[in-house]
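User: Could you check the structure of this?
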Amino acid sequence: MAKFLRLAVWNANGILKHKKNCKFFLQDQFNDIMLISETHFTDKSFLNTPGYKFYHANHPDNTAHAGTAIFIRSTTNHYPLHIYVKDFIQATSIRVKTLPYEITVSYLLSTTVS
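Assistant: Sure, the predicted structure tokens are below.
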């Protein structure tokens, strides 16, 4: 019997101002993985959703813009990969262990440099 992963993608344009909607969507739609761009997180930002692990890459200047994140269901066998952060790109990646393969899931946000 095959196991399927439900995956969602969302451009949040500031996830903290939408955190109730985010939590509702994760739990209501039974998503296993949710990829988020434009998190607008800083080093002081925090988001916790019961039943999910949260990984994120902030913009390196630590101001509230850009950034990526991944929510993954806690019961999904996985491990985080290297977070890639530069002025012009942020990437969050995980490796999901499935049988007989492992799947890499990455979300990358490219921003323009002025």
